[in-house]
Design goal:
Elements: H1 2-50, E1 59-63, H2 64-69, E2 77-78, E3 81-82, E4 84-92, E5 95-103, H3 114-119
């Protein structure tokens, strides 16, 4: 009986450590993509802070191409990858929430919608 408990305990410890290592490696691997998401979000915030009359009454989307075109974002390149993206800007009561989405060759933000890029 003790062997089963010790074996189970050892398996749980190995699983926890293994999943922790995998999670940390994945986070480190995706760090550059997270920074690109943050960069496009900050560009959208800067744009709307300089043009407050353009704030949406409820919700709008601004693409990375638009931010590049109006010189609020330099590019959407990451190493040798060309990425594309957009920021959803939504009014929540009295403030605005910014949700960045990007798509690169090896990474895509969860819930990225390709149709948004194509429609705008």
């Amino acid at each position: 009986m003790k062997k089963i408990v010790y074996t189970g305990f050892l398996i749980v410890i190995i699983l926890v450590l293994g999943l922790t290592v995998i999670g940390l490696n994945l986070k480190a691997k995706n760090q550059n993509y997270y920074e690109l998401e943050k960069r496009i979000e900050e560009s959208a915030k800067l744009y709307y802070s300089q043009y407050p009359e353009k704030f949406p009454s409820n919700k709008t989307i601004i693409t990375s191409d638009k931010l590049i075109e109006i010189n609020f974002l330099k590019n959407m390149k990451l190493a040798k990858e060309n990425c594309k993206g957009y920021v959803v800007v939504e009014k929540v009561y009295v403030y605005y929430e910014y949700a960045p989405y990007i798509k690169c060759k090896n990474y895509e933000t969860k819930d990225f919608d390709e149709r948004i890029i194509e429609e705008i």
